[in-house]
Design goal:
The complex is a heterodimer of chains A (265) and B (270). Chain A has helices at residues 12-34, 45-52, 54-86, 93-105, 108-123, 130-156, 159-167, 172-183, 185-201, 203-209, 216-225, 229-254, 258-264. Chain A is mainly alpha-helical and 265 residues long. The longest helix of chain B is centred in the N-terminal third of the chain and has 33 residues, at 54-86. The chains are: A mainly alpha (265), B mainly alpha (270).
């Protein structure tokens, strides 16, 4: 009799409970802490405190700057690479795996250690160029995450459209700007969302490249060390808001196909 | 021809950027040097240190055991979740997919911090039980398993399950022998993604781990802040070994699958 009551639907229940318990509930608790004080009363104080604290706001801008420059440099390096692998002369799976997959399997702290040793030799002292080194480190770390979605979306692109544009008299630059770029937009959007946010919060790279912690993630970390859950939660909430904003923007421009493209690769 | 040379040079430079640091480290790991720059004679001392220092052995073993446990848990949960959601009411499914998407797009540090705030501070669970750590990493990994199993369910012929029932299978047998078999590639690639995520994770681990436990990530980050030189160079040996293993695994997988990207070694995009 018991088997009769078994339905496939029921299999979803454990995971649904898991998501509620370990995804929804933690974030709810963070929101709760963000808008209460130590006595547990509702307050907006933490919110205002963040935006009136010059160090906190400075850190926010510095993180955004690092994330912005990192995303741009990843895009600049990844786009030609993805194009060459998808449509160019080297469309070979093994090269793709070497460029985009193998690095992900090596622990990022070990890879950053390696990069740091090299930069130390080149520059003499890492402290001379903290911003540059951080961007190099993050580009090194996140480049594969930009290449993969770009590769998928360029691969799906119809080559005949590019040829048609050429036949109709478009210059090389016009073909790129008016045909290729719009067609690869979903890939660009998902690549950017995969790089921007981690680059904003990954203080470990910054920490290892240059012993400073001047980035959003470390701000959470610092409040964490002082047992100040309320302010740590407020910064998490601000990051969450940025994530929601980013997802909304990427939903508008990236929409269909990009997620499936990644999953089927 | 000119085009091909240009593209070849570009790819070569990208590969150099990605691999030169690791290769340098690999060469120096076989020497007595403690700094990159001056080679000082062949030595296997780093590898001896790596395999005889208890602290390092514990850390490496702990990392891999954790990754394996978390990945298995994630595959079980994620596959069940995907099957359940696929056959459920659309409203349940879209709710689940929304929640599933949160850890994928969320910053790892927020996931880790929120997990710590809930489990350790709010509920008072002891970190030393490993529950927060395993729960945190599983929350990060399972959504990716779900995302790689779901496309297989969509592609599957819906009638084979019905056929199995008509041929006398119980629903559970049909699920195990027919549906699950179709999902194996998706489960495998989800498993691989889960392993890479767990091995690479720093933020969730650092907020939820027991004080005495270290993974490679947390250990290396602490070691860069003034550890002994012998430990530092032993970590070069570790990088070299991991690099070698990864290359071998990738080559084998590539040869076996033959098809582009089917190895499933890819972290799915958002």
């Amino acid at each position: 009799m018991k088997l009769r009551t078994f339905t496939r639907k029921q299999l979803g229940i454990p995971y649904a409970l898991f998501l509620v318990l370990f995804v929804i509930l933690p974030l709810s608790v963070v929101l709760y802490y963000a808008f209460t004080n130590e006595q547990g009363q509702f307050t907006m104080e933490n919110f205002f405190a963040f935006f009136t604290n010059t160090k906190a706001v400075g850190t926010l801008f510095y993180s955004i700057m690092i994330a912005f420059v990192t995303t741009l440099s990843c895009l600049a390096l990844a786009y030609p690479t993805a194009y060459i692998l998808a449509k160019g002369m080297f469309s070979h799976g093994a090269v793709l795996v070497m460029v985009a997959v193998t690095p992900m399997w090596i622990n990022f702290t070990l890879r950053i250690t390696a990069l740091k040793e090299i930069l130390n030799v080149i520059e003499g002292n890492l402290a001379y160029y903290p911003f540059l080194n951080t961007v190099i480190g993050m580009t090194y770390d996140f480049l594969p995450f930009m290449i993969l979605p770009l590769y998928t979306s360029i691969l799906k692109m119809d080559s005949q459209l590019l040829e048609a544009a050429e036949d109709l008299g478009a210059s090389g630059w016009e073909i790129f700007w008016k045909v290729m770029l719009p067609l690869s937009m979903p890939g660009i959007v998902s690549g950017v969302t995969m790089v921007f946010l981690p680059a904003m919060t990954n203080y470990v790279v910054l920490d290892m490249m240059y012993n400073s912690t001047y980035i959003m993630g470390s701000l959470i970390g610092s409040y964490f060390n002082f047992y100040d859950w309320n302010n740590g939660s407020m910064i998490s909430t601000i990051l969450l808001l940025m994530i929601v904003l980013l997802s909304w923007i990427s939903g508008r421009f990236g929409d269909s196909g990009s997620r499936e493209g990644g999953a089927s690769l | 021809m000119k085009k091909k040379v240009g593209q070849g040079i570009w790819l070569f430079l990208i590969l150099m950027f990605l691999y030169l640091p690791i290769l340098f480290l690999a060469v120096y790991s076989f020497t007595e040097s403690t700094m990159i720059g001056a080679i000082r004679g062949f030595s296997l001392q780093n590898y001896v240190t790596l395999f005889t220092t208890q602290e390092l052995i514990d850390m490496i073993a702990g990392t891999f055991i954790l990754a394996l446990a978390v990945s298995i848990l994630s595959v079980v949960l994620g596959t069940m979740g995907a099957i359940g959601a696929f056959y459920s009411h659309p409203r349940f499914r879209s709710g689940l997919e929304f929640a599933n998407q949160i850890p994928v797009v969320n910053a790892d540090i927020v996931t880790g911090f929120s997990m710590c705030v809930l489990l350790i501070i709010f509920l008072g669970i002891d970190k030393d039980t490993y529950i927060p750590l395993v729960a945190g990493q599983t929350a990060l990994c399972t959504p990716f398993v779900y995302l790689s199993v779901m496309p297989r369910l969509k592609q599957m012929d819906p009638y084979i399950y019905e056929a199995a029932l008509d041929l006398g299978c119980t629903p559970f047998q049909a699920l195990r022998k027919v549906v699950l078999r179709e999902l194996v590639p998706g489960m495998l690639s989800g498993f691989m993604t889960a392993v890479t995520l767990s091995l690479d994770d720093y933020f969730i681990t650092t907020y939820t781990k027991p004080a005495v436990f270290d993974t490679i990530s947390t250990y290396v980050v602490n070691a860069t802040k003034g550890a002994q030189t012998s430990i530092k160079t032993a970590l070069w040996a570790l990088s070299t070994l991991i690099f070698a293993i990864v290359v071998i695994v990738v080559v084998v997988m590539n040869l076996r699958s033959g098809r582009k990207g089917e190895g499933g070694l890819v972290r799915e995009e958002v």
